[in-house]
TrEMBL record:
Residues 143-156, 172-193 have a biased composition (Polar residues). Transmembrane segments: none annotated. Residues 563-646 form the Peptidase A2 domain. InterPro entries: DNA/RNA_pol_sf, DUF1759, Peptidase_A2_cat, Peptidase_aspartic_dom_sf, Retrotrans_Pao, Rev_trsase/Diguanyl_cyclase, RT_dom, Znf_CCHC. One of its GO terms (molecular function) is aspartic-type endopeptidase activity. The gene is Acey_s0052.g2265. This is Peptidase A2 domain-containing protein. It comes from Ancylostoma ceylanicum.
């Protein structure tokens, strides 16, 4: 009940407003005026006064209610604790429901508009009555008399300006048409006169970009949009109001009506560049002189800042309602610490403090300071205990000149500042110098300590006066006396704590005394055991990672936006968050598999895209980088926590860090900069250290702070170490394994062996899948820790708020988002709910966002995040088994396709969304949305959805789909079901036939087979023209070139195609070579012989030990380009149907193997035993020889036979029913002998491998 105190005032205010609305509703009716003109005139006057009063009261009541409501909403937004925030949201919704706040406010708005309409109507009637009764003539005469009287210096008549725009005129009882005598009498005796309102004059524009929005707003209202003025009059008025640079901007343009738009556009283009205006405003704030200690100076600086905020809003950026940390820090830096400190303390209770809230708090502190100064009739200075100083501690002070006639510490004029005996504490002196931005050597405001000609401190050599040196007395443990000759009595209880506090402060300020206590302090502690001692705040070490905020180019929005960079010299490659790369629309160059290894040997493999990133330096220079994407960079870590000494040091040296978070806030970088671009962005690491030991480095974005430094440890918490993982390419063994080793042949020993564990898992899970009622219903494969899953509601709400802000700036995307969710609901994919499902296993809210792809037919794809979670909590993906994919191999499916005379290919429409969830698992897939995108996600505007079908974004979704389809096809057990099960790849299906009739029957049967579980097969394409023509167009894909399982295929010519294209490279690295070789996708092995020489050169480069990123020699690069030129633009086509052999007879599979010192190759053909006819190439494999050691040809022949046997086993398992026997052919005479001897084979083959 945190809002209990605010509930009653809001309810009462709402009741009051509702009463006012009900009271003034009757005045919205049309007024029936009297037939007598004089009475009508009086009636109009009364109506106008009444309507004005009603409008004013309603507006005041509404503003009061909205202010109170905004206060509780701000309290909700600024709440840090997530559970408390959720409770506050519920309380706010209850208050709104009890007070009917939104309804009352809406009714008051409607009533205000209606009353305003009646007010305008009454004013028009009043004007007519004045003309009719002659009061308008009387007013004109009085105006003329007042004009003449204003020239009379001796006229003692008081003139009072009336508030109402309409002169009430004489009453009905007075003479409406006075004579000249009465008129002159009236003019001399009346003491209450109306004067003619002054004419509005146009402001002048002198070409100041910051003032132009204000000037144009006035000119546009008075002149530009005026329908009464001619175009030429507007031009003349515009020219009249332009001066200086603004007038020069339109010189040369003829001042004729047809050029008016040209003139206006020229001025807008010149002075309405909002980004340029905003940068100038920020520069003014940066260069603004800080305020001194007086309230008058603080108020003046505050007013200047307020002007800049208003100009920023006029420039198109509503800084007032934003939580801009940079602006907040700059604003706080312009005011003294006695103003800033209470504001900073108060801001700790608010997570996101807006600039408007910050300015309001500062205004209160300045007003309080002004009030105190007026009461005391003097400026307030820091009050400190009066202590004396040692007379012999005055050396060097004679050379120090005071900053002003009076002492800056005690404000007295009888001594220099550095010889002050009233304010002797070093910490207090330092604070005063820091607050007033004075030199720490001489106290002057005209320069900093680094520019001062006075000598450095004689005690420590630092740039400050000896009287404020913290080392001056921190290490002095002998004969510690007060700083005057007055002795402290030993029995004075109050003296000891004061001295101890001071000594403790000295210990804290001295790094050498962090972990020990002085001897005198120990003695005082022993002598005064009964006194209460405040525990010392110990110092600890902070390790700060190097981060900086920089501008990157957003290709979608065509503008720069600021993101956080993390610099890590331990990482090899630069990576960017994958989601951010998509949002920025970064151009993708290629894709590859990357391995990330971290502390503890943890290895992560993920797919990455090579993208181009353009960043802008602080000086406007563009830097192009080619980097990789990664799903997650890091979970975040604290920023640097600058001490007061560090802040003062940075100000003195005019160092402005390129990071908005400097107080230990949590930050999450979007780009990790590795060694490949580290020195492109880091321009220098200067030998500059802050007082706490932190280092300062120069980046293209500005200075950044990093390293090891001391900080105040306010609470005893367990230390947390934030470490980064190292991103690198695959190791040489992993990347080259598939090129050189037996394990990379693509046909492993286990390829034909069934996985008993996987089959057992499938059998157990398939028992939970239901195929009733015409659709598939499947559960999630849950883990035992499902009971530990939390709802993730607060994360989902926070992500929704962020998504809503983005969509409000992109109306087109917002419309697509709403339409897609509405379509989901209409199609039954999602549903609304009020209560959780019966026996629900758990509850989880998935955040969601959109991926915008403008070039697609449906440009928006909504993505749900099942891996989202709070720190230290579980996500939905954490409590679900990923399961087995059971996906068939592409090579095997293509082999089956090559043995079918007629083939049909198709896919399952929206396969994932056709799997329905069991009822008690639906609440695991909840998400939140809003009814109206324009309003915040309050209870009245919030919609709770949950998925009825398998959602996108859960890691187990592919495995659930495959296991469900496999279980269904196995359960059907038909011949066609078994064929589809063997040729199913995710949602792609291959069907074979020997005749047109059989193909069309299988088309009908397959459609029927999947329709039984609510799935639709579509985009059928066949290599037979007649089959294509007889398939309905709604289910047919256009014949011609297409891609099947990644391979180029022409359905009309019924051929597979492989093309080689290796662009010439002026510079090469080892990574470039491997990337080009792997860019050729050839699962059947058609182009294997063409790449042997390229792979051999790769072997040579590999054996040379060249680093992955090092540029290869000119000779290697030239040889590579020559080989590429030889094999470039090769186009290989083979018939999909491998043979024209009798289909009724079984075939003999021939597999040939041959080797050389460079490569091993094997190829397979089919032959009809009766006719001897041979097919075209069925499949082939080409690999380089193993690289472990020098191999003999006989041993390599044995390896070739092994390759051939594995390839033969793979092909036979794919088309088992068509092969009668397998023959392996080799030209080696030694290898067959070894094969006959099992013992020799075992020994020699182990040596070979």
């Amino acid at each position: 009940m945190a809002l209990h105190l605010q509930r009653t005032p809001i309810v009462l205010s709402a009741t009051t407003l509702k009463t006012l609305v009900n009271r003034y509703k009757e005045y919205t009716q049309k007024i029936d005026y009297n037939t007598i003109d004089e009475e009508t005139y009086e009636q109009c006057r009364s109506s106008i006064a009444l309507l004005k009063s009603g409008i004013r009261q309603i507006k005041e009541g509404r503003d009061n209610l909205e202010t109170k409501h905004s206060a509780i909403v701000d309290e909700y937004k600024n709440c840090k604790n997530k559970s408390e925030k959720k409770d506050l949201l519920l309380e706010i919704e209850q208050i709104e429901e009890e007070s009917q706040l939104q309804t009352v406010i809406a009714e008051s708005h409607d009533l205000t508009f209606m009353l305003a309409a009646r007010l305008d109507e009454s004013k028009c009637t009043l004007d007519k009555m004045e003309v009719k009764l002659g009061y308008s003539t009387l007013k004109a005469q009085r105006d003329g008399q007042q004009t003449s009287e204003s020239t009379d210096q001796n006229n003692g008549v008081e003139v009072i300006e009336t508030v109402d725009n309409h002169d009430p005129g004489p009453s009905a009882a007075s003479n409406p048409l006075p004579t000249e005598t009465s008129g002159s009498t009236y003019s001399t005796q009346s003491t209450c006169r109306s004067i003619k309102p002054p004419q509005a004059s146009l402001p002048k524009s002198y070409g100041d970009a910051e003032d132009f929005p204000e000037y144009w707003a006035i000119f546009e209202t008075l002149v530009h949009k005026s329908r009464e003025l001619e175009t030429m009059e507007k031009i003349l008025l515009l020219k009249e109001s332009l001066k200086g640079k603004a007038q020069n901007a339109i010189k040369g343009i003829r001042l004729v009506p047809e050029n008016y738009s040209w003139i206006v556009d020229t001025l807008k283009q010149r002075y309405s560049d909002q980004s340029s205006n905003r940068s100038q405003i920020v520069q003014k704030l940066v260069s603004m002189k800080p305020a001194d200690q007086s309230a008058e100076s603080c108020q003046a600086v505050f007013d200047q800042i307020q002007v800049l905020i208003n100009q920023m809003i006029s420039a198109g950026y509503n800084i007032r309602n934003n939580c801009d940390t940079i602006w907040a820090e700059m604003i706080l830096g312009k005011l003294p610490q006695d103003i800033v400190k209470p504001v900073i303390v108060a801001s700790q209770a608010h997570e996101n403090q807006t600039i408007n809230s910050l300015m309001g708090q500062l205004q209160k502190e300045i007003a309080a300071k002004s009030y105190v100064e007026k009461r005391l009739n003097k400026a307030i200075i820091n009050q400190v205990p009066i202590k004396a100083t040692r007379p012999n501690d005055r050396h060097n002070s004679s050379r120090v000149q005071p900053g002003n006639p009076n002492c800056i510490f005690c404000r007295k004029g009888n001594h220099p500042a550095m010889q002050c005996r009233s304010v002797t504490d070093q910490g207090t002196r330092r604070n005063i110098l820091k607050e007033q931005n004075r030199c720490w050597k001489c106290g002057s405001k005209s320069h900093s300590s680094f520019g001062c000609t006075q000598p450095d401190c004689s005690q420590c050599g630092q740039k400050h006066h000896v009287s404020i040196c913290t080392k001056n007395n921190a290490n002095t443990t002998r004969n510690i006396q007060p700083w005057n000759n007055v002795q402290i009595p030993s029995n004075t209880a109050q003296s000891v704590p004061n001295y101890r506090d001071r000594n403790q402060r000295l210990i804290q300020n001295d790094p050498s005394n962090q972990n020990r206590m002085t001897t005198s302090n120990m003695q005082l502690k022993n002598e005064n055991k009964k006194s209460q001692i405040t525990a010392l705040t110990s110092t600890s070490t902070q390790l700060v990672l190097m981060t900086a905020e920089g501008d990157v180019w957003n290709y979608n929005k065509r503008e720069y936006e600021k993101i956080l960079f993390l610099f890590d010299s331990g990482a090899q490659k630069t990576v960017i968050q994958e989601q951010l790369a998509e949002r920025l629309g970064l151009p993708k160059q290629s894709s590859e598999i990357c391995t990330m290894s971290g502390i503890g040997g943890h290895i992560e493999n993920f797919k990455t895209h090579i993208v181009n990133l353009k960043v802008s330096s602080a000086f406007g220079e563009d830097v192009q980088m080619q980097i990789q994407t990664k799903p997650v960079i890091t979970n975040g870590f604290p920023s640097v926590h600058l001490s007061n000494d560090d802040v003062a040091f940075l100000k003195e040296n005019r160092i402005r860090p390129a990071n908005s978070k400097l107080r230990g806030e949590r930050q999450n970088p979007h780009v990790l900069v590795g060694l490949d671009h580290y020195h492109d962005l880091i321009t220098g690491q200067n030998a500059i250290k802050t007082p706490t030991g932190l280092h300062v480095a120069e980046t293209i974005f500005g200075p950044t702070i990093y390293g090891k430094g001391t900080t105040i440890k306010e609470s005893l918490t367990s230390p947390t170490t934030f470490s980064l993982t190292t991103v690198h390419e695959k190791s040489e063994k992993e990347l080259l394994q598939k090129i050189f080793e037996l394990e990379g042949l693509g046909i492993t020993p286990d390829e034909c062996r069934e996985d008993d564990k996987a089959l057992e898992y499938l059998e157990q899970y398939s028992k939970k899948i239901s195929f009733k009622h015409g659709y598939v219903t499947a559960p999630f494969p849950l883990k035992e820790n499902i009971s530990e899953l939390e709802d993730n509601y607060t994360v989902a709400i926070r992500r929704l708020e962020s998504l809503q802000k983005t969509l409000q700036l992109n109306p087109e995307q917002a419309k697509w988002y709403c339409d897609i969710l509405q379509k989901y609901e209409e199609e039954g994919m999602i549903e609304t709910f009020t209560q959780p499902a019966e026996n629900a296993v758990g509850t989880y809210f998935m955040p969601h966002s959109g991926v915008w792809r403008r070039n697609k037919k449906v440009p928006l794809r909504i993505v749900f995040y099942g891996s989202s979670k709070k720190r230290g909590k579980l996500s939905l993906s954490d409590v679900i088994h990923k399961g087995e994919s059971f996906v068939n191999k592409i090579h095997d499916i293509l082999i089956r396709a090559r043995t079918k005379k007629i083939t049909m290919m198709c896919d399952i429409q929206a396969a994932f969304s056709q799997i329905r969830l069991v009822d008690n698992h639906k609440d695991l897939c909840r998400f939140v949305w809003v009814r109206n995108i324009k309003y915040p996600p309050t209870k009245d505007n919030l919609i709770l959805y949950r998925f009825r079908r398998l959602p996108f974004g859960v890691t187990a979704s592919p495995s659930i789909l495959n296991m469900a389809l496999t279980a269904y096809l196995n359960a059907k057990g038909t011949k066609l079901a078994k064929e589809i099960q063997q040729s199913l790849y995710v949602d792609n299906i291959l069907i074979g036939a020997e005749s047109v009739t059989e193909a069309l029957e299988k088309y009908v049967q397959s459609k029927q087979l999947f329709s039984e579980i609510g799935m639709n097969l579509r985009e059928y394409i066949s290599n037979n023209h007649e089959v294509n023509s007889r398939i309905p167009e709604i289910d047919r894909l256009d014949a011609g070139p297409t891609r099947f399982l990644g391979v180029d295929y022409n359905s009309e010519a019924d051929t597979f195609h492989v093309s080689t294209h290796f662009p010439p490279m002026s510079e090469l690295t080892k990574r470039d070579i491997v990337s080009q070789i792997n860019s050729l996708y050839d699962p059947i092995g058609l182009a294997g012989p063409l790449t042997v020489h390229l792979k051999a050169l790769m072997r040579e480069v590999f054996n040379s030990g060249v680093d992955w990123k090092s540029k290869l020699t000119f000779d290697i690069c030239n040889r590579w380009n020559q080989i590429c030129k030889t094999i470039n633009d090769a186009h290989i086509s083979i018939p999909k149907f491998a043979y024209t052999l009798p289909t009724s007879n079984k075939k003999r599979l021939w597999v040939f193997a041959d080797v050389s010192k460079t490569a091993i190759a094997t190829c397979a053909y089919l032959q009809c035993p009766e006719t001897g006819l041979v097919s075209t190439l069925v499949s082939g494999k080409t690999r380089l020889t193993p690289k472990k050691q020098q191999q003999t040809i006989p041993r390599l022949e044995l390896v070739g036979i092994l390759m051939a046997s594995r390839l033969g086993a793979t092909i036979r398992s794919s088309i088992r029913d068509q092969i009668s026997e397998v023959s392996i052919v080799s030209d080696s005479e030694i290898a067959p002998y070894w094969l006959k001897s099992t013992k020799k084979l075992s020994k020699r083959f182990k040596t070979t491998c």
